[in-house]
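thread: overnight batch results

M.L. [08:02]
morning all. the overnight job finished for the chain we discussed friday. pasting input first so we're all looking at the same thing
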Amino acid sequence: MIAGSAITVVGVMALASVRRARDAPMAALPLLLGAHQLIESMVWRNAGDGAHAIGGTVVLLWVVIAFPLLPAYVPLAVFIAASHWSRLRLVPFVAVGLVTASVFAYAMASGPVTAEPVGHTMRYGVHHLSLENLVVAGYLVATLGTLLVSDQPELRLLGLVASVGALGCFLLWQDAFVSTWCALAAVASVIVLYWLRRPRKRRAAPDPFRRPRVPVR
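M.L. [08:03]
and the structure it wrote out:
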């Protein structure tokens, strides 16, 4: 609850710091992730002291944000915030994100979703998900890959932190990877606030993926 509230405040500050309309979707990411953590606190409240799987509207809302929404939202937000000349390389990631989100949405519509306490973490399940490993790979490519190839250095830093965190969460909490990684991503999203508040003169950062122009003699 405390972490979710703190990240939500960061999200409000990020939205208040927007200076360009195209940055607004990315600025809303900390707010979305903060709300996500607040929803998970309600999932824990519903779980009580038992170790059984639970369902309900709160669990469904958490899963909707984590699975179909984020892999579509993050690539689109990065795409919108990018410079026009750098958007072409982001198109494949946006496509992967939309396909991954569609697969998750279909699986959720086909069967129940549940949450189950695993120690101090929560394991979420989508029970009619086919080709699970491939879908998870698409999820990570869409959310992390888009950030890593962004033309904005702060967003690349966010992608790097989230990638290292994803590896750590998988090694430490494999059964509850999604829950723990989403929590880490929420904390890391404070980088978005720094990105929005950096001096305007630094916003035209050089793009390492763009070939330098050769002067014509």
